[in-house]
Design a protein that fits this description.
The structure is a single chain. The chain is an alpha/beta fold. The protein has three domains: 54 residues, lambda repressor-like DNA-binding domains (434 Repressor (Amino-terminal Domain)), CATH 1.10.260; 124 residues, Response regulator (Rossmann fold, 3-Layer(aba) Sandwich); 131 residues, Rossmann fold (3-Layer(aba) Sandwich). Helix content is 44%, strand content 16%. The strands form two sheets. A six-stranded parallel β-sheet has the order 2-1-3-4-5-11, with helices on both faces. A six-stranded mixed β-sheet has the order 7-6-8-9-10-12, with helices on both faces. α5 crosses α13 and α10 crosses α11.
Length: 353
């Protein structure tokens, strides 16, 4: 059979195979399930050759093959590689080792749907863990191949897939509340944009804390730093140039907080004497700054272990029920923040004169 461009990189179904060979789907099923009395030897030979060439298995046999593989995949795009990913991977690997399951890491340089589906078809993992944004075609791909999957920190209010995520909202709320309790009223936000759930929910937590203190949210005090040090650097400079009265900056990632601190030093400002800075994530480098970074500490290892345990539980129980598990976070106060002098401790109160 010639390799058709329409099928060479697409998951072939029984109906597609039947169409290619000019037979009925029932004939395909009979040939591949050993019902030799219902199909001629020549037709069976043609079907077996085509099925092998295109990697086709009947649904039940494909499911059995995945279960027999004993392998789960951790799928990540290279653009998402960071310390957080390494923490996830460590937790996932430990659970796999304890449960006697093989772990296969799939790293894609960039999103390529055809290549992604080809790799899934070749490796046939029994389940998958993945990091991507909501609505990413990767999620649909797992569903189309019938591969049980669990998302890592990929969720929204209407999530209909299995996910393990951080308490991004609560962590941002606590960080902002701490700054407000410390007397800060002009607080700049280095956001992560609206693409990643962590950025969305951390911004929501920030806004809600302001609201609870009777302080209106001002979009002019927000800069999207895209979770990068360079974005944090540019954002801090922009915020201070347009709002010189800022006394604090909350960055929704430690990477942006590091960039912000560098920008403040370049502007001749001291941290925390002139401007306090709070980050989010708890990466190791933050502890080694001088002064050490105040941050919302997260546990990517726990996220990884919870996600892997959820996936293995799904595989053992054959459950497809969508569930979400939230992992807690903790505000760690260090040296990049300070309380302002002569402040009112009552919510919504102005600084005393």
């Amino acid at each position: 059979l010639p390799v058709s461009n329409n099928y060479s990189r697409t998951k072939v179904t029984g109906r597609m195979l039947a169409q290619m060979l000019g037979v009925s789907p029932a004939t395909i099923s009979n040939a591949l399930n050993g019902h030799d009395d219902r199909v001629s030897p020549e037709t069976k030979r043609r079907i077996l050759e085509a099925a092998k060439r295109y990697g086709y298995l009947p649904p039940q046999r494909a499911k059995q093959a995945r279960s027999a593989s004993g392998v789960i995949a951790f799928v990540v795009l290279s653009e998402n590689l960071n310390d957080w990913f390494l923490g996830n991977l460590s937790g996932i690997a430990d659970i796999c080792r304890k449960r006697g399951v093989a772990l296969m890491q799939m790293l894609f340089p960039a999103w390529d749907r055809e290549y992604f589906e080809e790799v899934l078809q070749r490796t046939n993992p029994m389940g998958a863990l993945y990091i991507c944004t909501p609505g990413h075609p990767m999620i649909e791909g797992f569903a189309r191949f019938g591969i049980p999957a669990v998302a890592i920190d990929c969720y929204d209010d209407k999530t209909q897939w299995n996910a393990v995520h951080l308490d991004n909202y609560g962590g941002a709320y606590d960080a902002t509340s701490y700054l407000l309790e410390s007397g800060h009223r002009q607080i700049g936000l280095l956001s992560g944009g609206d693409e990643w759930p962590s950025g969305v929910y951390r911004k929501r937590g920030f806004i809600q804390a302001l609201k609870d203190w009777g302080i209106p949210f001002d979009q002019r005090l927000v800069y999207n730093g895209h979770f990068t040090q360079f974005g944090g650097y540019l954002g801090a400079k922009s915020l201070l140039e347009t709002n010189p009265s800022l006394s604090a900056i909350f960055a929704v990632s430690d990477e942006m907080a590091l960039g912000a601190i560098r920008a403040l030093y370049d502007l001749g400002l001291k941290v925390p004497d002139d401007v306090s800075v709070v980050g989010f994530d708890g990466i190791c480098v933050g502890q080694n700054l001088d002064p050490p970074l105040t941050t919302v500490e997260t546990d990517p290892y726990a996220v990884g272990t919870n996600a892997c345990a959820m996936l293995l539980g799904m595989l053992e129980s054959h459950s497809e029920h969508a569930a979400k598990v939230q992992v807690g976070v903790k505000l760690v106060v260090r040296g990049t923040t300070r309380s302002l002098e002569r402040v009112s401790t009552s919510q919504g109160g102005d600084e005393s004169s």
